[in-house]
Amino acid sequence: MTPAARVQAAIEILDLIIAAARSNGAPADRIVAEWFKTRRFAGSGDRRAVRDLVFQAIRACGEVPPSGRAAMLLLARDDTALTALFDGSSHAPAAIMPSEPVAEGGFAPAWLANALAESAIPENEAVALLERAPLDVRVNTLRAGRSELPPGGERTLAPDGWRYPYGTRIEDSLAWHEGVLEVQDTGSQFACQAVGAQPGESIIDLCAGAGGKTLALAAAMDGTGRLLATDTDRGRLSRLPARAERAGVHAIETRLLDPGREREALSDWIGKADAVLVDAPCSGTGTWRRNPEARWRLTPGQLDRYLAVQARLLDLAASLVRPGGRLVYVTCSLLDAEGARQARAFLDRHGAAWKAESPILPAGMPRGAGWRLSPYHDGTDGFFIARFRAL
């Protein structure tokens, strides 16, 4: 592909990503991969170059751009070499017209930028949410020593954490294939550390998804005790057994839940869990480094729905914990509505039955009744972590 053809390809892919953002369709990574599946003429260099252009444009646009071309014109505004590729030649984008719409720059839609500012995330810190994330991994202590770690990594503040540069193909390593390594952001590892899982305990990972945190809890429990992973997403939960097999974990029970009927499905656990982890569905504002187009998908109405689900799951989790047990609430969000205010509301609802315990971690800082991690201060994804104790 010529450089101009790469720009035109990026524009076409951006159009698909914008449409998906408006309709809650496929994520950008999948759209890029699908686009290239039917275009075998594109070599690996072409794919990398087009992908880089696509994600540069996504990161540059605050509001949802009117089109892929408008997004690319925003990049071209400060790049004369890119501007020159809009020449109308074969497979190239048409020449730029003086009155063409250009996408609006920024780090987020205006309403979301205001919500972050109200949550004490000023613009200079919010911009760090759009930087490329490194590759963080957790050494699986149940498999440690089976093979050497790949070169090029460095220790993180997480007890079993290592960090590799962006783009490292860790899945090609022997350590990954033998279950020695699990890809997991350092902030996510801290969230698991806050649970304080011990061997022999009975623990529930209430919103387990594909099980990244479940596997970390299993390692902390030394593969013993009882560990239940639940979720309402069959597709995501179905990926956990294969991951557990690779990680050498054989004591995880999975349970698919019906939304709104979770308590019925967990009636046998009422008041019995030593700890419950609630990694609640949320806005994902802390994960923009990996999914920058996610900020185009979120609306105030969707945020309100997340808040209602989070409150309901917290109340459900509270019913599952034994006296003296722990409840750890986690969101990958930097919005106080999903973090400090949600934690405060839980304590207000449950009166003297629960108390907050500060989850002292090697990074982050207190925020309300919990703890907050951010890319700007801590080099992790954005997280809010609160830990409660049943009295």
Description:
- The protein has 391 residues and is an alpha/beta fold.
- It has 3 domains: 3-106; 134-184, Alpha-Beta Plaits, CATH 3.30.70; 185-390, Vaccinia Virus protein VP39 (Rossmann fold), CATH 3.40.50.
- The chain contains 17 helices and 13 strands.
- The strands form 2 sheets. Strands 5, 6, 7, 8, 9, 10, 11, 12 and 13 form a 9-stranded mixed sheet that branches. Strands 2-3-1-4 form a 4-stranded antiparallel sheet.
- Helix 1 packs across helix 2, helix 1 crosses helix 3 (44-60) and helix 9 (186-195) crosses helix 10 (212-220).
- The termini are far apart.
- The mean pLDDT is 95.
Give the SSE map.
Elements: H1 3-23, H2 28-37, H3 44-60, H4 68-76, H5 80-84, H6 110-118, H7 123-126, E1 135-139, E2 154-155, E3 161-164, H8 174-177, E4 181-183, H9 186-195, E5 202-205, H10 212-220, E6 226-231, H11 234-237, H12 240-247, E7 252-256, H13 262-265, E8 273-279, H14 294-297, H15 300-320, E9 321-331, H16 340-350, E10 354-357, E11 365-367, E12 370-373, H17 375-378, E13 383-390
Parallel strand pairs: 5-6, 5-8, 6-7, 8-9
Antiparallel strand pairs: 1-3, 1-4, 2-3, 9-13, 10-13, 11-12, 12-13
Task: Please summarize what this structure is.
The protein has 17 helices and 13 strands.
Uncertain segments are none
Q: What structural category characterises the helix and strand content? A: alpha/beta
Instruction: Give the C-level CATH assignment of the largest domain.
Output: Alpha Beta
Count the E strands.
13
Which value, in Å, is the CA radius of gyration? Answer: 22 Å
CATH topology (fold) name of the largest domain: Rossmann fold
Count of discrete domains: 3
Question: What is the helical fraction, as a range of percent?
Answer: 25-40%
Largest sheet: 9 strands, mixed
Task: Output mean pLDDT.
Answer: 95
CATH architecture tag of the largest domain = 3-Layer(aba) Sandwich
Counting H and I runs of at least 4 residues, what is the number of helices?
A: 17
Termini separation: 65 Å
Order of SSEs: HHHHHHHEEEHEHEHEHHEHEHHEHEEEHE
